[in-house]
Design a protein that fits this description.
alpha/beta
Length: 216
């Protein structure tokens, strides 16, 4: 198989990176996009063999887009760098591109309490709105795979938490075939904190960004 690039937006995830990078399958190359970490994340990633790029503009979408531009493989995956996702499941999404233009993971919690109620409720609401638009998804998932050039051509402009939602909306409008696969969702690594689901404030900030995207 050809190499696959895996974009990992990163903000203070040094404690999680060893287990995250160790889970990457053979020929899946990590691109860690440091988004202003102060805990040495960039140095940890580089020491573990990852390609490290820096995006000083704070924002999930800014980091993801910078990683996409830095990728060179035809197929690119995206995942969180906090240890909550099992990157060993990425080949399932890549294989799914044989019948789809975009594959996404639907998070299935490994135990109760892993996914806070406020984050889960917000995700369910947005997903239901997307299904009404004809997009068969049940999660605004952080685990995704697609062709690199096609993603660039899609022209996603959001540089904050609204990026994955805008991606799904643009994909639907462009007539992309979107396939969703169940993926495991577990407790994030000790010593890291979610920027979205880790607090009600973070969830509300994401909801604001989602609302901005939906209003366009």
């Amino acid at each position: 198989m050809n190499d696959v690039d895996v974009v990992l937006p990163c903000l203070d995830e040094a404690a999680a990176l060893p287990q995250v990078l160790a889970a990457l399958p053979a020929r899946y190359r990590a691109i860690v996009v440091d988004n202003g970490s102060t805990d040495g994340s960039a140095e940890v990633a580089a020491a573990l063999g990852a390609k490290v790029v820096h995006e000083p503009r704070r924002g999930y979408g800014a980091a993801v887009h910078t990683g996409l531009e830095a990728a060179t493989a035809d197929v690119v995956c995206f995942a969180d760098a906090d240890g909550s996702l099992d990157l060993a499941e990425l080949p399932m999404l890549v294989d799914g591109l044989g019948g789809a233009d975009l594959t996404v993971g639907r998070r299935v919690p490994s135990r109760p309490g892993v996914w806070p109620w406020h984050a889960r409720a917000g995700n369910a609401l947005i997903s239901s709105l997307l299904r009404r638009k004809g997009l068969p998804v049940r999660d605004i998932a952080p685990l995704r795979a697609a062709q690199r050039q096609a993603l660039l051509d899609l022209g996603v402009t959001d540089r904050a938490f609204g990026y994955p939602l805008e991606l799904l909306i643009r994909a639907q409008r462009a007539g992309w075939r979107v396939a969703e696969f169940d993926v495991s969702y577990r407790e994030r690594a000790k010593g890291t904190k979610s920027k979205v689901s880790g607090s009600l404030k973070g969830t509300l900030r994401a909801a604001r960004d989602f609302g901005r995207v939906l209003s366009r």
